[in-house]
Each structure stands twice: as C-alpha cells, then as structure tokens.
C-alpha cells in the first residue's frame, strides 16, 4: 500500500513552541470515500492562529489532540476523485492536514484557477489572508479617504494587503514591522506613507505620534501588546479598531498584563471589534475577484517566503514568532507541473 | 452688593480626592448680561466624570484650573432674566457652577417641567444619567429580547436605569453592586434577574458565570477593572460592550494594569464602543419623554441620595468613590417652593 508522511502534534508547547512539539510520521496513504478526493499537497500554509490550536483550551479554533495530525491550509493537486465536479489534475485548496497526501471532503474544497496567478497565492494574497485583509479592513475598519490607517505586522500576509487596500482607498497608511528590509519594502514598494521598525525604536509612542500627525482613524491590529499600547492613545474620535490577531501574546505562559486603556474609548467614542474571516464565507469570491484584479493591475503586490521541503514545515511555523517572514509564509511540498 | 458662595478647586488630588482639594469661597453674586439668566441653585449634581476634570490632563472634559470654581449639573430657579424665553421663577437645568448662585447662558439651559416629577430628577433619571442609560443601552448596547444584559454599578444613577430598560426590552438582567441593600433593591424592586455583591465575592468570575448561564450579550460597563476582567470571558459571539465609565480606575496614580483581554474579542467577534452622552444632544428629548412615561407607569423606579447643605458638596462627591450612594447622588442647596 502506498504511504505518505504527516506531521503530528507530539506534545503541547509551554511558551514558545519548539521542534520537539512536532513528530514526522509515515502512515498509509488514505483513500477517498464517496464524495471525497485524494489531494497531493503542493504548498502548505503555516499561520499564527495555529498556536491556539496547539493549546488545550477552548477557542474559535478547536484544539488539536496530542498524537493526531495537525491541520493546515493546503494547495494541492487531485490524484483521485470520488466526488462530482472534481477530476484528477484539478488544483484545489482547503483546510487539510500537515501531510504530503490527504483526503478531503469535496464540500470543503475550492478549485483554484491557475491562470489567476501562481497556485501558491491561493494560500496568501488570493486566499485566507487576502480575504481577511479585504473584509477586515473594508467592513470592520471602514476607512474613508483622508483617514490615517495604522496596521501592525504590516509586512505580513494580512498586513501587507491591508496597507495597500487602505492606500487604494485614499488613506494615509502607516505600519510597523521588525526589520529594515521590511520597512523598505513597505515604503518603497507598497506605497506606505511611513513605517516603523518597532525593534529599533526606543520610544514607540513617540514614533507612532510622529508618523501619524493627524491621529489614527483605523487601527488594524495583528499583534497586540506594546504596539497596541502605543497606538491607542493616538486614536481619533469615532475611530475603528479591527482586532485580527494578537501574535505578541500567543506564546505567553501566564495571562499577559498591560496598561488598562479602555477609558480611551470613552474619550474617543472609538469602536473595537474582533474579526474572524470565517464570518465572510459568503463574500469570499467577491474579495478574491477584486484582489486578483488589483494584482493584475500591479496595484497590489505580494511576497511569499517559501521554505522548501515538507520536513521543514515546523521550522517555517516557528519562524512566524521570530518575525522572519516577509509576506506569506509557505512550505513547498511538491512541484506543480500543471 | 449681594454675595454668594462657591466651591473652588484648591489643589489637584493625588489618588483619591480629599476635602483639602476643595475650598468654600464667598464672592460677589454675579449679574446676568444680555442673553443670560441668574440662577439660584436648588440641587447640584456630583458625578464620577468630575474626577477627570480635577486632573491636569487633556480629556473629553476640559480640566478645571486650581483657584477656579468647579462646574456641575444644576437644577435651579431663575432669579433674574436678561434672555428671551426665560422668566423669574422658571426652573432650569444646565451645566453651571458648584455655587449657590450662578449666571448661565440661556442657550445652554433647558427648562424643567415640574409636573413631570420632582425637579431633582432633572439631574438624574430625567437628566444626563437617564439619557446616558437610554441611548447607551439602546443605541450602543442594542439588546434583543432574550439577551443577557450585564451592567456594573447597577445601583447607580445610570446603571439602575440601564437594567430596567433592558428588562423592559425583554432581556435577562444581571448587575453588580457593593452592598446587600443595593442587591436587594435591584432584585426585589427593579426586577433584576440576579445581582452580585462584588465586595462580598471571593470568586467574581465564578459568580458572573453562575449568574449568566447563557453568557453575556450586552455589557454596560460603568466601572472597569476587575469586574470587567470577570465579565469579558463570558461574552457571547457578536456581543456588544458599551463603555460608559471606568470609576474603578479614576483615582489611580500610576497607569493601572490588568490582564490583556483583547484576544477575547477575536474569538467572540465582540464589539466594544465608548459612549459619551453629549453625542446624543439631538435625541435628548426623545429619551426624556420615554423615561418620563415609564416612571409614570411605574415601569422604571429611581432613588436619589440627597446630601443636605451646600457646604457638604465635597463630601457628596467623595462618597461616589466609596460606593455609598444608591441611585443618583445629589446635593440639596435650597428648598424648591414652586
């Protein structure tokens, strides 16, 4: 019987995850039942939200069990189909396993059109991060021309799209990132008006104030923690805060503490709202169509940080917490020769 | 020339305000210019937000200067009018001084109809606190029948109206207060489904969970701090948090710290919004008309905690931070014989 490899959760991390939390296991290659397809993984996504699933705690993402394979966004090629509408050779994307091959329910897979761009983008700018940026900014953040939009983790898969959409929407765009290379990409290539290297800044509050002379109307928060502490005091009256992620806090072993800032919201009548892309399932295609056009017109640019080889998937994931990636962090598992 | 007395800010408090921060001063009674009226104070309001004005920091309420008279919501009788539409003997309300007599701009005063209820209610249930409760709950909190509405400082001027409006709106209503007498008033008289004496509870989180078996859909937050820490984890998906006050934090000398809870908002796609009643100037009358009818029909009840004598105004204010008042805290300055 054919075999395949998958990464399983070997143990739950305490604080920062390490390589020991993952185990590479060889298993029988599964076969599709009625309504299912067998997918050969081309690219696998690693995302900050996965840290939550490694924890044994109720969250919006169900925890993974120790000893079970982990799940991930995957782009792959259909090897066998037992489902109407899918054929061998189709490129599909969906939530599958950290595995070289996996079986998926046809209802939970989307076909990828390879003519829209490299198939890997179905995990990035033309996938979950892109849609998150699109509806998170436009529906929750609701920027108006002339607004100042501030985005943290601005060089990440979500943040880089948020910033460019905000620019297209007529906003002044300011972001934070953790290296000079990222800062240069944001300001030279993506059209950010200003960008702050938070790792090189002693006075984050002062840097935010200087970069946002008219205050902040929309804050798209991917990070939380000290960057949020520096941003909130600069919020304008009737500003909006979209909370998309809090990666600065995900590896804390104790409940993290910080200054209590809710009184700011009274003074500013600001609105803070949490955001999950799964609430936009019905408007997924609308966002993708628009993003694809912006990419074609070179109005939105993207980068991918591709780690080669399935055996390096845990390293790619761990790199997220070091802020190593520019743009979307991916693992290339097999060559696409379509 | 006639004289009058006023309370001036003698010094800025550090931490909890004390009697030394206030000075009772006798001054010439002012005379109204064109467009102004001279008002004899009947009742003066003391409110938590005044703590912010004693501080030398920018806020939504401008800071008072040391050596200047302080300002307050007042109900009074017109002694002299130089303004069209106001006559001697009219009862008016507005933002005037901590003073026995003060001059006010006619544009900034509202006439009080003594037939709607005792004139003191123009500072409470039929005044700023009532309107805050009305629009804060209905516009920001937006409760639906069957929702659980949680209100902190539930026995206060704002909270007691919030809870009763939520009950009328078909919600399950739960609140916190700081004495058994208050708890009894809330559950026996005002129709709260449950109330928690936070001063007598070792396990606030557990008490909130027990009182809200279906979670919390609307949290009307007057207090902040540890009560908010206990409430947020119980927020339901798509719940709303109206931040009206953070009295638990107003006397802190350092920036108060607490657990970072913003990730909760992602999981729950909850919305948190700050609230200032001044944004509802145009809808003030609408709220008052409705509240007056509910009071007439005994659907909404209120209490006032009246401190007698102008010389006791600072004590009445300081009592707010001890949680002494049930309902609206007032200072009675002169008898109304209208």
Automatic annotation (TrEMBL), chains A, B:
SMART domains in the record: PKS_ER (SM00829)
- Pfam families per the record? ADH_N_2, ADH_zinc_N
| A single MF term (Gene Ontology) | oxidoreductase activity, acting on the CH-CH group of donors, NAD or NADP as acceptor
Enoyl reductase (ER) domain location is 18-331
Q: Which domain of life is it from?
A: Archaea
Keywords for this entry?
Answer: Oxidoreductase
Checking InterPro entries in the record gives: ADH-like_C, ADH_N_2, ER, GroES-like_sf, MDR_fam, NAD(P)-bd_dom_sf
Q: What is this protein called?
A: Enoyl reductase (ER) domain-containing protein
Q: Organism, per UniProt?
A: Natrinema salaciae
